[in-house]
Automatic annotation (TrEMBL):
Entry EC no(s): 2.5.1.141
Protein name: heme o synthase
Keyword Transmembrane part of the UniProt annotation: yes
Segments traversing the membrane: 66-86, 106-124, 130-150, 162-181, 216-233, 245-263, 275-294
Entry keyword set: Cell membrane, Heme biosynthesis, Membrane, Transferase, Transmembrane, Transmembrane helix
One Gene Ontology cellular component annotation held by this UniProt entry: membrane
Organismal lineage: Bacteria, Pseudomonadati, Thermodesulfobacteriota, Desulfobacteria, Desulfobacterales
Length: 297
């Protein structure tokens, strides 16, 4: 047997192994401490959560003081990393059963649950301490968001699709925290509009992230998101003709692209294309609202 043939045979045997044995193989290939830690903390996802906090801060103050901005963004980032790590600990048994998740650090056996839990505690404590440095109210809000995510959403998602709603609440809080860190009124219609838009967006976003959701229900939620973007932008912000047109264009393109990939395209993994268009539509819409708020367009 040639060297290539032998390597292929070994790989095929590894793919057929139970998850625990695969974990041993992964360790033999040397997934290190840093890679395992990053795998559990999900930095890209946590950065997006932190970015929504920065958006809320800048929405209130276009020339923010550097230290409060950095401290609030860092606190939310570390707290999100800790919550993601704890989520890995909570889901480790379920993750071992599915092809999509069984190679993560915990189900693969690259890190112990105790070490992962220690990482979660360390990150969440550091995040809460950073928020506490700004105000006790922000730290309390961060703790509440983490409790909602790890205490309600994570256990509930194993039992019902309705778990998406407490998960949505968690995702609505970071821009509010940034807004409050900048000194904004939590009952302002502007931040309320942003939270409403973000909350509706998260329902199709979270479903499309993990499933082939290719039916009229998916399009219905996307249309609802697009309508909320235009409605709340119109009613909570002082839009110009240009900003109003850009917002409508963003919403319309999102719906049109989603409808095409859901019902007309024959490409595989169409839900991923819808997912990406949805992920582009939200930040573009928020940038339009931000520019409109400060008279840039």
């Amino acid at each position: 047997m040639t060297g290539i043939g032998a390597a292929r045979e070994k790989w095929e045997k590894w793919e057929k192994c139970p998850a625990g044995i695969q974990g041993a193989c992964e360790r033999a290939r040397g997934r290190g401490f840093v890679k395992s830690a990053l795998d559990m903390a999900k930095p890209p996802l946590s950065l997006s959560v932190s970015a929504s906090c920065v958006f809320g801060f800048v929405l209130f103050d276009p020339s923010p003081p550097l230290w409060p901005l950095v401290l609030s963004a860092l606190g939310v980032f570390l707290l999100a990393c800790g919550a993601a790590t704890l989520n890995n600990v909570q889901d480790r048994r379920e993750d071992a059963r599915f092809e999509r998740t069984r190679k993560r650090a915990l189900p693969a056996g690259d890190v112990s649950a105790v070490r992962a839990l220690a990482q979660a505690v360390l990150l969440m404590t550091a995040g809460l301490a950073a928020l506490w440095g700004l105000s006790g109210g922000l730290a309390l809000g961060g703790a509440g968001a983490a409790a909602c995510y790890n205490g309600i959403y994570t256990p509930l998602k194993k039992k019902t699709r309705l778990a998406v709603f407490p998960g949505t609440v968690c995702g609505m809080l970071p821009p509010l925290m940034g807004w409050m860190a900048a000194g904004g009124d939590p009952f302002s219609p502007e931040i309320g509009a942003v939270m409403a838009i973000l909350g509706i967006w998260q329902v199709p976003h979270s479903r499309l992230a993990v499933a082939d959701w290719l039916d009229s229900n998916a399009l219905g939620w996307i249309v609802l998101f697009a309508a909320s973007l235009v409605f709340w932008g119109e009613n909570a912000f002082d839009l110009t003709g240009l900003s109003r047109g850009l917002l409508a264009l963003d919403a319309g393109l999102c719906v049109a692209a989603s409808a095409y990939f859901l019902f007309l395209s024959v490409k595989p993994n169409r839900h991923k294309a819808v997912f990406h268009y949805l992920n582009m539509a939200l930040p573009l819409g928020m940038l339009v609202l931000l520019a409109a708020k400060w008279g840039r367009i």
